[in-house]
Design a protein that fits this description.
Hypothetical protein af1432, Phosphonate_degrad-assoc, OP_Dioxygenase, HD_domain, Phosphodiesterase
């Protein structure tokens, strides 16, 4: 698949499900653009900007209802998204995506006050995703090679829920997506 074909697929995924809100004040597209923009503004490397932009792509490619969390079902979007992205990108993109839910679970015990800042929708999904880490889980997560990248992504994820925030369009990120593609 060419880079142009991948960009077309990504745009199609956002066109298909990007208007869904998943219980937050912003829709999937706004959330993704905000996360990517926050990562770029923080000076993150291109691969981590792309990971932030596409961290919830798993929500865009499954066929489950928009209110699936309210039905008590975890979509495991982080695994689905990471697997989909691994066809095109290396671990610098896919591992922070795979680990961003675990990063939330980790931060609930590792960062004082983090849990209290979570939105209602994020607390609901946290329950479905296993709740805060215990000491053993936190230690295992912290030892992951991409744990710190996932923690950064998670913070941008939490901040990327601002109604009306101005961000560049998806096309702005095309050069970073191209630069982050796996060679070969």
């Amino acid at each position: 698949m060419t880079a142009d074909e991948l960009l077309t697929q990504i745009q199609a995924a956002f066109d298909r499900r990007g208007r869904e809100t998943y219980g937050e004040g912003v829709n999937q597209t706004d959330h993704a653009l905000q996360a990517g923009w926050l990562a770029e503004q923080a000076g993150a490397p291109p691969s981590l900007v792309v990971a932030a932009l596409l961290h919830d792509v798993g929500h865009l490619i499954h066929d489950l209802p928009e209110d699936i969390a309210e039905q008590g079902i975890d979509t495991e979007h982080e695994s689905l998204g990471s697997a989909w992205l691994s066809r095109f990108f290396g671990p610098d993109v896919t591992e922070p995506v795979r680990l961003h839910v675990e990063a939330k679970r980790y931060l609930c015990v590792a960062e004082p006050g983090y849990f209290e800042r979570l939105s209602e929708a994020s607390i609901l999904s946290l329950k479905l995703q296993g709740g805060p880490h215990d000491a053993e889980e936190a230690k295992a997560f912290a030892a992951e090679p991409y744990a710190q990248a996932a923690v950064k992504l998670r913070h941008w994820d939490e901040e990327a829920k601002v109604v009306g925030m101005k961000t560049p369009a998806l096309a702005h990120f095309a050069p970073l997506i191209r630069a982050s593609l796996r060679a070969g």
